[in-house]
Amino acid sequence: MSITQAIATSFKQECFLAIHDFDTTTGDTFKMALYNSSADLGSTTTAYTATNEVSGTGYSAGGATLTGVQPTTSGTVAFIDFADLTFSTVTLTGVRGALIYNSSKANRAVAVLDFGRDIDKTAADLVVTFPEASSNSAILRFT
Length: 143
Prior knowledge:
The protein is mainly beta. 6% of the residues lie in helices and 41% in strands. It has a five-stranded antiparallel sheet with strand order 1-7-6-2-3. A three-stranded antiparallel sheet has the order 4-5-8, with no helix packed on it. A hairpin with a 2-residue loop joins strand 4 (72-74) and strand 5 (77-80). The N and C termini lie far apart (31 Å). The relative contact order is 0.26.
């Protein structure tokens, strides 16, 4: 089992099928769920799963809603930005990665994040900081 950072291959196809709506006011709801190192997540992940999702004080199954979804362009690149996400005052052990998914559309997978190490928090905030919203570094980019 492993977590491999990737954009879900199914998401790439679903973008061409107009399944995901990133409109900032009327679009779909995107969430982030947290996983331990036993999770098997990567480019072939197609949907949210509770298998090997972390559990603990202050964390709800399914994770939390992402905000600040802002589709934009720069030059010939289109990209999406999310606001940094804070899981407030949680007690969690062994958080290794996350899944961004579309809870409005059958929990379809968007992207897998590998944090590069296990993270433990005891009655503290766990903050997921997204890269700068730019054509070179945004979390989701079409080049």
